[in-house]
Automatic annotation (TrEMBL):
The lineage of its organism: Bacteria, Bacillati, Actinomycetota, Actinomycetes, Micrococcales. It catalyses: Endonucleolytic cleavage of RNA, removing 5'-extranucleotides from tRNA precursor. Consists of a catalytic RNA component (M1 or rnpB) and a protein subunit. This is Ribonuclease P protein component. It comes from Microbacterium nanhaiense. Belongs to the RnpA family. Coiled coil: none annotated. The gene is rnpA.
């Protein structure tokens, strides 16, 4: 599980990252990244809309994304703020496929 210091919780932060951050789209998601330049672990936020599925499906996708990001954290730039928006196809994807897709997006935009 991501520590509290590694989560984006404020709506203004989400809006800023999505509007001003660099982005990369994969088959199952979009990654938005802003480099803050601070010396802290990267922070993550997740957007999983109702288009993805019912509450159980959305929470499953969100938990998978959190696990993938926790695993990728050591390879990411310190101070990066990252928002991942899941596409509806992510609900049907196998965990390995989702991990590969998200890891590729993180490596291209937020790797150290």
């Amino acid at each position: 599980m991501l520590a509290r210091t590694q989560r984006i919780t404020r709506g203004i932060d989400y809006r800023t990252i999505v509007r001003r951050g660099s982005r990369r789209a994969g088959a199952l998601h979009v990654v938005h990244v802003i480099d803050t330049g601070e010396q802290r672990p990267p922070r993550f936020g997740f957007i999983v809309s109702k288009a993805v599925g019912n509450a159980v499906t959305r929470n499953t996708v969100r938990r998978r994304l959190k696990a993938i990001c926790l695993e990728a954290t050591p390879r990411l730039r310190p101070g990066a703020d990252i928002v991942i928006r899941a596409f509806p196809a992510s609900a049907e994807a196998a965990y390995a496929e989702l991990r590969h897709d998200v890891a590729r997006g993180l490596e291209r935009k937020a790797a150290a």
